[in-house]
């Protein structure tokens, strides 16, 4: 006769409940796996770079360059992570960076010095984010359409301001920040700004009510509304945050290039979205990770650097990025179907 194991009973003879792991522990475990996987990919890329171009890739100046380049798009990606986590999208980030950079480097703006350039870049970024937020949150426009319109408008205005010319920065205090003399313990100032933005973004998403509301809106906007969250206001704040990050990134780009151009921020929207997705942020919303997004930025920047050192054409880089995005989305779909 086949015997079946009886369920455990407590002291009263009743069936004791079977202990289950809390859902948040499972989510943390999956997040740890994603983070370790991304670290593994980044380590593999470093090994590849060290093998193919050991003298150039592992040079301190080149590593500093990689981190510096990652800082600009990285700040944009932090803002994009919040937007995607809420179930939205922002296709205008690159154009906003361009508009902010050229508006902040006009002759009239540079007359106000360091503070004038910084304030203008941030103000233009926040202003564009405000327009996006109002159109989406209170105007009822689909994020894809609203931000696509902003992309076209901001690019057009940036071209009109510059008349297709490069605007050279003449303020010494800004130019000095891009020099090696400004490095602190070998770390460029742009990298330090990126680190500060990353830490603030992580705390905001993971340790505040604002972050919990962002995740709730992305998971189920109607349920969030019934729970007492002002969904429209939350979405407005998120696009303001994205615009703020674009303004900061524009100022970093001004320091890095020493100029303002209407072509700045080209394809930043692609890089930011791709970095967030491969980092583990769900494109459908409801889950976001700043740590993963930062690792995604570092992976893409390292790939670009390795390709450049090996004299591979830019079209090959774009094909590789596209393949990585497709692979990341397929992994996300498979992970979602098994949880």
Automatic annotation (TrEMBL):
Membrane topology category: Multi-pass membrane protein
Domain of life: Bacteria
Keyword Repeat: no
Chain ranges passing through the membrane: 33-51, 91-108, 114-135, 182-205, 236-256, 290-309
Subcellular location: Cell membrane
Pfam family, one: BPD_transp_2
Keywords: Cell membrane, Membrane, Transmembrane, Transmembrane helix
Keyword Cell division: no
PANTHER family: ABC TRANSPORTER PERMEASE PROTEIN YPHD-RELATED-RELATED, RIBOSE IMPORT PERMEASE PROTEIN RBSC
Protein name in the entry: ABC transporter permease
